[in-house]
Every structure is written in structure tokens, then in C-alpha cells.
């Protein structure tokens, strides 16, 4: 997974979206996965050998901006609690152990993205 995040980080350093000149379903799917990564996957699946979250931390500045860019467009449709529904029973979370707090992740998602400067295509 770390290699995939690094590859996405590199790609998104040069372009605003993954494919073409406009936002596509591919972008939406990736952003939903990256939101779930910070909220649940990272801890819920015991993925501790990587650089951490996307929205919290400094390891993936291009991915963070990308998520914020698209989140600004879909924010009213996001149900944060649905991202956490099944992860309390995942391998990486001991019984009774809390998942990361959602509020700092939500606050980060709402910050300015700064991706307007990137060309809108390849």
C-alpha cells in the first residue's frame, strides 16, 4: 500500500485529477477510499508500517490537497460515521480500543486545497 500511496503522491504532484482534464468517477472512488483510510483502514487493518494518514500528517501533501479539493465538492454527501461501521472488529483493533477521532480528520478535509495552480490535465 505504501508504494501505491507514493505513486499517487507523485502523479498528483503534476496534475489535478487522475485521468483527463475533469473530475471523474475514478477520482471520487479514490477520495472515498482515502477518507476511509484515515478514519478506519489505517488503524482498523493494522497498517502501521507506513507513513500514516493522508489528511493528518505531512507525508502526502499532494494526496492531502487532492482529497481536500474533491471533498469540497462532495462534502454534503459524506456520512463520516458510515466509514467506521465495521472496523471495530477488524484485525488491527483490539476489543474496546477506539479508532482515531473523526473530528480532526474532518477539520483537515475542510481546509483549503491549493490545487488550482495545477494544470487541469496532462
Task: Describe this protein's structure.
The chain has 122 residues and is an all-alpha fold. It has one domain (2-109): Glutathione S-transferase Yfyf (Class Pi), Chain A, domain 2, CATH 1.20.1050. The protein has four helices and no strands. It is globular and about 45 Å long. It starts with a helix and ends in a 13-residue tail after the last helix. The model has no long low-confidence stretch (mean pLDDT 81).
**H/E series:** HHHH
Cα gyration radius (Å): 14 Å
Unreliable residue runs? none
CATH fold description: Glutathione S-transferase Yfyf (Class Pi), Chain A, domain 2
Coarse shape: globular
Under the CATH scheme, the architecture is: Up-down Bundle
Oligomer: single chain
Q: Can you tell me the number of structural domains?
A: 1
Distance between the termini: 25 Å
Strand content: under 5%
User: Under the CATH scheme, which class?
Assistant: Mainly Alpha
> Structural class given helices, strands, pairing?
mainly alpha
- Kindly state the percentage of residues in helix: 40-55%
For the secondary structure, the number of strands is 0
Averaged pLDDT: 81
Q: How many helical stretches? A: 4
Main sheet overview: none
Tags for this model:
mainly alpha; globular; about 0% strand; Glutathione S-transferase Yfyf (Class Pi), Chain A, domain 2
Summarize the structure.
The chain has helices at residues 2-11, 25-44, 61-74, 102-109. The protein is an all-alpha fold and 122 residues long.
Amino acid at each position: 500500500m505504501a508504494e501505491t500511496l507514493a505513486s499517487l503522491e507523485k502523479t498528483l504532484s503534476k496534475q489535478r485529477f487522475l485521468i483527463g482534464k475533469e473530475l471523474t468517477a475514478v477520482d471520487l472512488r479514490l477520495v472515498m477510499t482515502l477518507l476511509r483510510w484515515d478514519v478506519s483502514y489505517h488503524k482498523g487493518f493494522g497498517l502501521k508500517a507506513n507513513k500514516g494518514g493522508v489528511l493528518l500528517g505531512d507525508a502526502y501533501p499532494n494526496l492531502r490537497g487532492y482529497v481536500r479539493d474533491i471533498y469540497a465538492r462532495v462534502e454534503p454527501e459524506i456520512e463520516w460515521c458510515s466509514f467506521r461501521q465495521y472496523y471495530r472488529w477488524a484485525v488491527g483493533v483490539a476489543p474496546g480500543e477506539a479508532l482515531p477521532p473523526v473530528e480532526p480528520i474532518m477539520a483537515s478535509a475542510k481546509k483549503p486545497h491549493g490545487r488550482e495552480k495545477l494544470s487541469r490535465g496532462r
